[in-house]
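pipeline stage [seq->struct] | target=NagC family transcriptional regulator | organism=Alloscardovia omnicolens | residues=412
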Amino acid sequence: MARQKALNQENLRAHNIGVVLSAILRSREPVSRAHIARTTGMTKAAISIIVSDLIEHQVLQEGEPQQLASTGKPSNPLEFVPQKWLGLGVQVHTDGYGFILQDFNGTVVHKQWIDNAESVSERTDVLDQLERMIAPVVRDYEVQGCHILGGGLAVPGMVTSDGVLIDAPNLGWKNVDLMATSLVQRFHLTPLNEANVAAIAQIPGYAVTASSMNNAENTTSLADSFIYISTDVGVGGAFVDRGTLVAGNNGVSGEIGHLSVSMGGPVCRCGRRGCMEMYAGRKALLNAAGCSRASHMDADEGFAWISQKLIGSDAKVDEVMVEATRAMASAIVSTINMLDITNVIIGGFWTRFGANWLAQLYTSVSMQLNTVHKNKLTITFPVIDNRAALRGSAQLGLRHLIDEAGEYLLSD
């Protein structure tokens, strides 16, 4: 009975640590101990003990005194210690692969990326190469006293909740047990679809400070629900419900690129006809526009080619762009009608087309919605778009300290 009581107390203490860390992450302004007590409902004495422990473990530090409240004395704001606790984000993409290390302040302290679209076809070679790239870097940071908390492996395909990559047609990978790979096991990675982790990167306070996203006008609230659409060669999607990723019963929800928008459309690699990806996917778009080098272009080269054609008022390219936008709008409308979520974020390749194109997409979507959804519709580009899947993957590792504080801070 005494042992059970001790375990319950330890679990409660670990939970409270997570509550305190989450309160600091979610605040857009500097926070004091008193502020955390008010927002969490915990006593000032309890907060003081937890914060002291977190400072001792070099998770938090005190900043310079500031006037954090309208009355009273200046307080020392609580901050995450820079570059001490790190998440590892790993990604295999259609145009290359790489990894980052990121801290709770949203700072990417290390990044390596290999740009080579043809290098991702051999699965074993890519995963082995990533392991060789990561190992010495992790070792160096650990020697410096940093804690690597694991992270995520982002891939462009359907990944089940138990880490099996069912199909990644744009990589040519199929039925791969990622959890059994040395890369995943060695660095404690969670395999996920790249759209899912890119969506995680848009949630303020998930595992990096919301204040690090303060300068963006279209930052989502932690309470927001949104549809995230990742666009590149493939088109993926993710759904976030009030700050929580909704992966579905099997972990493979969000395949918005494979919603059929035309029963008589082109055959997709998935076997269906008229998938939205066959109109709005990067290579599909370029091929339809008449680009003979679509398979050999990266995203920037593809955008440059299309832009040049648009400047020259190329009628075929204009038509293809309109058709792709209509296809995307149709898929978005169907998804909104199914989920009753009206905040939409478009990431990846299509962000390059800018605000004018986004306005066209908004109009196309809005005119097809019912009054309730139309009045609440927002369509924006993401706050975090540059390698968002890498950043979201790293946050999966950082989140371990919040959700499993006892394992890292109470084991001694």
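stage status: PASS
auto-comment: The first strand starts at residue 60 and ends at 62. The chain has 14 helices and 15 strands.
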